[in-house]
């Protein structure tokens, strides 16, 4: 990739200057993009520049910027109209409240205001694009959901969720643009409520609430298990690789030994989703393509060293632990 100073800068339009809109402004500006940020609330527009600067100063304190916070802040322009934000944009990121009727109205405006080849993306957490974009929108084939982690400048995963009417070209271009902006896009193959992020988070939260309700554990103890147990491990590897490395013989061996127990736990909650042999074979094939079993011991050692680095980091005092 060419250095920032030799590339024609990308342009992002951001609609909504709440916490997610400000965070996206930081993401794109940090990657060298020119950003125009709009909110219909004049007070939000007035507050946004200071919020951007404060968050960038925090990132600078932790040495997470490659240039000065002032240089990055200078790339963010707050504008007074939606049309100004969308003009000349390669990508427009809508960050409005989670209301289908509001998003429907915004996307109609964006389709008129943005360049014909601009990607129109919603940061929706649960609403699929087909819930607020209909067949009356001329440019619907470039519309999709791009749901971030929060805040995206620290949690870089972003879910790219095309609607049935989104073109493959638009989805591929969106993935490329977000990757260019330093994010980690994942392609959600078809629309489901909550996408991947919130379905996984929701599964944990549902069980956590049930464990409190049933008197099994306190809120504090459940948070401790996540913070000191699953959280550190999942920050290094995901749930499939975790169980693949936890059991000699890999994920197929784990499914054989532990699958019935997980099925019973699901049945306690009225959920019947057994790990069928066909499903286990599909997951095992993906894991073996990523990690042949003859490299299993080496990868286990790598995992342990990553956890050691994390443990060392967590023990190191920082200048500001508040």
UniProtKB/TrEMBL annotation:
Keywords: Membrane, Oxidoreductase, Transmembrane, Transmembrane helix. The keyword Transcription does not apply. Residues 12-189 form the 3-hydroxyacyl-CoA dehydrogenase NAD binding domain. InterPro entries: 3-OHacyl-CoA_DH_CS (IPR006180), 3-OHacyl-CoA_DH_NAD-bd (IPR006176), 3HC_DH_C (IPR006108), 6-PGluconate_DH-like_C_sf (IPR008927), 6PGD_dom2 (IPR013328), D-isomer_DH_CS1 (IPR029752), NAD(P)-bd_dom_sf (IPR036291). GO terms for biological process: fatty acid metabolic process. The chain crosses the membrane at residues 12-33. It comes from the Bacteria. Residues 194-285 form the 3-hydroxyacyl-CoA dehydrogenase C-terminal domain. GO terms for molecular function: L-gulonate 3-dehydrogenase activity; NAD+ binding. Belongs to the 3-hydroxyacyl-CoA dehydrogenase family. PANTHER family: 3-HYDROXYACYL-COA DEHYDROGENASE FAMILY PROTEIN, LAMBDA-CRYSTALLIN HOMOLOG. NCBIfam families: PRK06129.1. This is 3-hydroxyacyl-CoA dehydrogenase. It comes from Paraburkholderia lycopersici.
